[in-house]
Design goal:
The protein is of the alpha/beta class and about 230 residues long. It has helices at about 25-35, 50-55, 95-105, 145-160, 165-180, 190-195, 195-200, 205-220; strands spanning about 15-20, 40-45, 65, 70-75, 85-90, 110-115, 125-130, 135-140. Helix 5 (about 165-180) packs parallel to helix 8 (about 205-220).
Length: about 230
């Protein structure tokens, strides 16, 4: 567990080279997470789980899998290769190997996560709830991943569905405001979200929610210049 506060960020890994060392189920989950965010993932392990191999076998001729891409090298990690990546995850389950990879990445100035070894991590992977563009991440600083997952599940249930749709409605409104020359900071978004719009979206009344949000934005728009 890290005793200093962690600085929360959302990393843009799309089309960036990321390394996963390890070929078991834990590594597979890390691979899926990176691929889902569009990363170019290289897996290094003497052997890989069938699910990982099947994922690679299912790629098209360009090596792409959905948003990201995947290549597998069935061998041991080579000291020094971490320097070629923007981000490294090591999940071999062998403490000495994971520690060596983490130390190598740290020496190269590359962000690294060592599964189940917070002391050798320069970043931690939170438990994540996603709905469209909305991401809710929960971290316990490495104290208890199980607790983070427990909280994530309950937060997701409490927030309910359609957060992604609500985000899209708000994004449209912000675009409208910017197109009219206004600032998105001029809108009291808290009052919008405390109003009926979220419940309308949850009920499937998207156009009604959009009308309310748009009306609020128009009130905040600068007056049209005189002709």
């Amino acid at each position: 567990m890290h005793d200093a506060p962690l600085y929360p960020v959302s990393l843009v890994v799309r089309d960036r080279p990321c390394l996963v060392v390890g070929g078991g189920p834990v590594a597979g989950r890390k691979i899926d997470g990176l691929l889902g965010c569009g990363a170019r993932v290289t897996v290094v392990a003497p052997a890989v789980a069938p699910t990982i191999a099947e994922r690679a076998d299912g790629l098209d001729d360009t090596g792409r899998a959905g948003a990201g891409s995947l290549s597998i090298h069935r061998r041991r990690y080579r000291p020094g290769e971490a320097v070629h990546y923007r981000l490294v995850v090591t999940a071999t389950g062998i403490p000495a190997v994971d520690r060596a990879v983490a130390e190598d990445a740290e020496a190269a100035g590359v962000w690294v996560n060592a599964a189940d070894d917070a002391a050798h991590c320069s970043f931690l992977l939170p438990a994540v709830h996603r709905d469209g563009p909305v991401t809710v991440a929960v971290s316990t600083g490495g104290a208890s991943p199980a607790l983070a997952s427990w909280i994530r599940t309950r937060v997701g249930a409490a927030l309910g569905p359609h957060l992604g749709t609500l985000a899209a409605v708000l994004d449209e409104a912000r675009g409208t405001l910017r197109a009219r020359g206004g600032s998105t900071e001029s809108v009291d978004w808290r009052s919008v979200l405390d109003g009926p719009a979220p419940d309308l979206v949850r009920a499937g009344r998207i156009e009604d929610a959009r009308a309310i949000v748009t009306a609020t934005v128009l009130r905040a728009s600068p007056p049209s210049p005189p002709r």
